[in-house]
Amino acid sequence: MSSVKIKLNPKEVEKLKEVCTSFNNEGGELINVLHKAQGIFGYLPAEVQEIVAAELNVPVAKVYGVVTFYSFFTMIPKGLHPISVCTGTACYVRGAEKVLDEFRRRLKIQVGETSADGKFSLSCLRCVGACGLAPVVMVGEKVYGRVSPDGVAEILAEYE
Amino acid sequence: MHLLVCGGTGCRASASDAIVGKLQKELDEKNLQDEVQVVMTGCFGFCEKGPIVKVLPDNTFYVQVTPDNAKEIIEEHVIKGRKVEHLLYKDPTTKKEISDSKHMGFYKKQLRIALRNCGVINPENIDEAIARDAYSALAKVLGEMTPEQAIQEMIDSGLRGRGGGGFPTGLKWKIALSNKADQKYVVCNADEGDPGAFMDRSILEGDPHSVIEAMAINGYCIGATKGLVYIRAEYPLAIERLKTAIKQAREYGLLGKNILGTGFDFDIELRYGAGAFVCGEETALIHSMEGERGEPTFKPPFPAESGYLGKPTNVNNVETYANIPVIYLKGANWFNKIGTDKSKGTKVFALAGKINNVGLIEVPMGTTLREVIYEIGGGIKDGKKFKAVQTGGPSGGCLTEKHLDTPIDYDNLIASGSMMGSGGMIVMDEDDCMVSIARFYLEFTVEESCGKCSPCRIGNKRLHEQLDVICKGKGTKDDLEKLKNLSLVIKDTSLCGLGQTSPNPVLSTLDNFYHEYIEHVHDKKCRAGVCKDLMKYLIDNEHCVGCTACARVCPVGAIAGERKGPHTIDQTICIKCGACMEKCKFNAISVQ
Predict the structure, then answer these.
(1) 3-state secondary structure of B346
(2) Would you call B6 an interface residue with chain A, using a CB distance cutoff of 8 Å?
(3) Can you tell me the distance from the alpha carbon of B338 to that of A24, in angstroms, rounded to the nearest whole number?
(4) Could you read off the pLDDT of B512-534 as tens digits, one per residue?
(5) CA angle B61, B62, B65 (to 5 degrees)
(6) Band of the pLDDT at B235, cuts 50, 70, 90?
(7) What's this model's pTM, rounded to 2 decimal places?
């Protein structure tokens, strides 16, 4: 895992430990605990995984294995405004790829990265179930439908 | 009078909650709040035309409503009794307004069993569900039937699993009943991972009680007191509504101890998925619920023998469950008369892609693809030509013109080289490159393969690489043979359903669109103009006036030429972004 140690907020660490206790520190609840942990920290850096492993009494390797297995969990902090472009099939055939390219070009970041100022992060997701609005982009909780490459600048401008 | 507003994800993304607020505000202002009720329902299915507002009792169906239309609907329709004509659905062929959804092409051929309450009730109010017979089937089964009788009824109905496998539901229950244990589990698979399919989500959002009721019946039949719903964390609205519904059911004594005074105990908990397609496979799903990586294991033992925490477990999908209460109320003999010989009942499809009426539809098994695409779906968008329909998601295949009159059921789809899957149906037109589509699906599979068995982990990666080479114009005819052979090996040797079906998009496109592959490897051409590396932007000297606009907009400096003289594009530098073509006012730039 990463060699640079991140300093975690002690209050948040306390909260994480409470979460573990609320699940009786059971190893079988690992995924539920990780969901809550990501809710607290926004992401799951190595330091958080180590605490979870110690609290649930499971090897760190197992925690890491689970975190990296599921796409919902991330080890990179998301931007202030996380952008997710739906690349489900319905969106793909209606031009999601071009929309994604335009976000990449404008933000100068790749999928899975966060912009240098920490403002935007870019990711792909598979189907939000709003295929009638394809292609769909989500910024935070807000859903944008029928997005064209030309509309990308407009969306970004809302958050500038 | 009732105003039903669609609260499905698609419509909410188009501000349907603001519509509810505005309608309520108008009613309050005019002191009509006691006469007219505004209800936020689940999905109506006609997502293309959302947000939808339906007025009862006259069944007026308003489409593409905005919050600003609220005032008009109240003043015109509610108060003066005049329909707001410009919000009515216009039939695309006759151009006439249709006010009752029953007469729309989109709804005419549909038969809604699993979706019976979606768009009809307020999913957050158990009383509305009960008024539509929710929990009567549970009462009937608990009060009048033994578990064996109830399972026999399920076997007689002919219901098959709607999650993709198509295994007979009654038989699955029978096996789970026969395995004795101190604790058994009932699991609802709500980890809808197939991109482009959203029926499970719509059912949970629109009619959660039908699933809860069916799980309780399932528990009674196999002797389980505990139910678990494995649901995607990416579905916050469905989670919220399911939680509300479970809470209400407990308050009414329909979940918990001694249900309906019969001595039967049953309760439901939620478990969250974290985004892994392979967790749709039942053994992988069970491992994920246990807090492990969602990797499948070899069957047998089947979950019915040793599943969650090593106990007998019955896993069924959301749509399967949604069918069950009605089967008990109307009887197996009613259900098994719908559909085809070996596939009974209806199937929900998520119709999407290049089609006029995107949405969620439910049709009897045996309906043809042509009826679905042209009558319900309203044909291909922008008058383009139909090319293919992809069913079954990443495990399915692409069907063509020649399959359009095939009646849809489990066995016919498999015989045609595709599969039912969970019911995604993506329509493609002449602008879609089938080689790229195959590559797209393989990219998905490579990402989602759990990595446990090598045919799937390595084989799919090689397939993807080979497809990528072909899309880049560097493939040869030998590669096509290799693609096919490798596909067959992966199918035969993979551990679970994911690997056993992942080459289907490749095999079916090779079968049905071999000429497109040949064009890519032999002529180095992509007829749909999707594969960038096979495209060429050219400047026509006759039309070019030398305005230099293209040269200035080119991000890589690939365009050279004197002012007022003809320009040329250096193909070795060009990245095919198309900016020059967009900029040219003289139509001098074309793409080949």
Answers:
(1) strand
(2) no
(3) 49
(4) 999 999 999 999 999 998 898 89
(5) 155
(6) confident
(7) 0.91
Q: What is the DSSP letter of B81?
A: -
**Burial of B487 from C-beta contacts in 10 A (0-12 / 13-18 / 19+):** buried
- Give which of B188, B168, B383 is closest to B271, Cα–Cα: B188
Token reading at A47: 């330091």
Here the ipTM equals: 0.88
Which chain A residues are Cβ-neighbours of B271 within 8 angstroms? 31-32
| Rounded Cα distance, B283 and B296, in Å | 5
User: pLDDT-derived band of residue A3, with 50, 70 and 90 as boundaries?
Assistant: low
In-domain check, residue A53: yes
Report yes or no: B439 and B468 within 8 Å, Cβ to Cβ: yes
- Position A89 scores a pLDDT of 87
End-to-end CA distance of chain A: 34
- Nearest-CA distance from A104 to chain B in Å? 13
Which letter does DSSP use for residue B230 in this model? E
Domain made up of B2-101: CATH architecture: 3-Layer(aba) Sandwich (3.40)
Q: What is the 3-state secondary structure (H, E, C) of B447-500?
A: HHCCCCCHHHHHHHHHHHHHHHHHHCCCCCHHHHHHHHHHHHHHHHHCCCHHHH
Residue B299's alpha-carbon distances to B75, B174, B303, in angstroms, are 63, 18, 8
Residue A83's SS3 state is: strand
CB atoms inside a 10 Å sphere around CB B56: 13
A31–chain B Cβ distance below 8 A for any pair: yes
Residues in A closer than 8 angstroms to B292, CB to CB, are 30, 66
Locus of tokens 């908990």: B269
Q: CA–CA distance from B6 to each of B11, B138, B241, B389, B542 (Å)?
A: 6, 28, 14, 28, 55
Beta carbons within 8 Å of B522's beta carbon, 6+ residues apart: B477
B386 three-class SS:
strand
Q: CA B185 to CA A107: how far, in whole Å?
A: 48
Residues A45 and A97 placed together within one structural domain of the fold: no
- Domain around A143: 81-158
CATH class assigned to B126-335: alpha beta
Nearest CB to B352: which of A34, A125, A134?
A134
Nearest Cα to Cα of residue B336 among B572, B154, B123, B554: B154
Within-domain flag for A4? no
What is the DSSP secondary structure assignment for residue B334, as one 8-state letter?
A: H
Enumerate the residues of chain B whose CB falls inside 8 A of the CB of residue A90: 195-196, 350, 352-353, 358, 426
